[in-house]
């Protein structure tokens, strides 16, 4: 495997940095000592890491120090992308089409938005890097997987900051809860939940939710019928500035 040469001397252990590109992991040095000496990275290394991060390379780092700086630069790239990107009519069209069908290939998407494939892919990558497109997912039918009971649960929490933090962490581990919202007013949180039947609902409320030390009260409302259910966000307010 060919080594990727550095244009400067480095104090970083040779086994510490990897550059991932073109589906290959390429060591940046031609040798890999088993026990490299621990040294701090210098300014030139930081410049090199910054160059890699800001130009789309993914860094795989073995040492915690380099992992931290690579993660920080990745977040910096995302923040810069979000600050710099300006959505035009074509970008909005891409978002509109993908919100209705996220499985389209790049060629199919380019045809829908009247672009050639290359610029379409470039725009799509920019939208992803900027965090505007958060993720792609499959939307399942609850009824088809036997989750016919849908409920909204209003939860009141103890005013202790520690218990609130514990609840915020614990709710992430409950698979029955699809969404949890912090609210103004008398209710602290609103949970959107799905269950196969009333027994499962009762078990969750009595044995899981109310047993949490921070929960003081819970009130439930069951969904009788869905009149509208969409994941597509409105984009009309952006068209005036595009």
TrEMBL record:
What the entry lists under CDD domains is as follows: HTH_ARSR (cd00090)
Q: Per its UniProt record, what PANTHER family does this chain match?
A: LEUCINE-RESPONSIVE REGULATORY PROTEIN, TRANSCRIPTIONAL REGULATORY PROTEIN
Say which domain of life the source belongs to: Bacteria
Q: Which GO terms describe its biological process?
A: regulation of DNA-templated transcription; response to amino acid
What GO cellular component is one of the record's annotations? Answer: cytosol
Name of the protein described by the UniProt record: Transcriptional regulator, AsnC family
Supply the InterPro entries for this chain: ArsR-like_HTH, AsnC-type_HTH_dom, Dimeric_a/b-barrel, Tscrpt_reg_AsnC-like, Tscrpt_reg_AsnC/Lrp_C, Tscrpt_reg_HTH_AsnC-type_CS, WH-like_DNA-bd_sf, WH_DNA-bd_sf
**A GO term, aspect molecular function:** sequence-specific DNA binding
- Domain HTH asnC-type: where? 87-150
Q: What is the lineage of its organism?
A: Bacteria, Pseudomonadati, Pseudomonadota, Betaproteobacteria, Neisseriales
Organism of origin: Neisseria elongata subsp. glycolytica ATCC 29315
Which SMART domains does the annotation name?
HTH_ASNC
């Amino acid at each position: 495997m060919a080594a990727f040469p550095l244009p400067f001397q480095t104090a970083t252990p040779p086994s510490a940095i990897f550059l991932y590109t073109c589906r290959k992991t390429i060591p940046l040095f031609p040798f890999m000592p088993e026990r490299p000496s621990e040294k701090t990275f210098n300014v030139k290394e930081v410049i090199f890491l910054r160059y890699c991060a800001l130009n789309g390379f993914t860094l795989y780092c073995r040492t915690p120090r380099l992992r931290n700086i690579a993660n920080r630069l990745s977040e910096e790239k995302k923040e810069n992308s979000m600050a710099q990107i300006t959505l035009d009519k074509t970008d909005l069209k891409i978002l509109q089409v993908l919100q209705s069908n996220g499985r389209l290939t790049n060629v199919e998407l380019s045809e829908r938005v009247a672009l050639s494939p290359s610029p379409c892919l470039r725009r799509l990558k920019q939208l992803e890097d900027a965090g505007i497109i958060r993720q792609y997912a499959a939307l399942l039918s609850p009824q088809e997987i036997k989750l016919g009971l849908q409920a909204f649960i209003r939860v009141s929490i103890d005013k202790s900051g520690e218990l609130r933090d514990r609840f915020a962490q614990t709710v992430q581990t409950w698979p029955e809860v699809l969404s949890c919202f912090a609210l103004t007013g008398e209710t602290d949180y609103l949970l959107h939940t799905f269950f196969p039947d009333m027994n499962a609902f009762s078990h969750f409320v009595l044995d899981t939710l109310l047993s949490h030390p921070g929960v003081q009260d819970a009130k439930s409302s069951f969904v009788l019928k869905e009149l509208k259910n969409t994941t597509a966000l409105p984009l009309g307010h952006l068209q005036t500035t595009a």
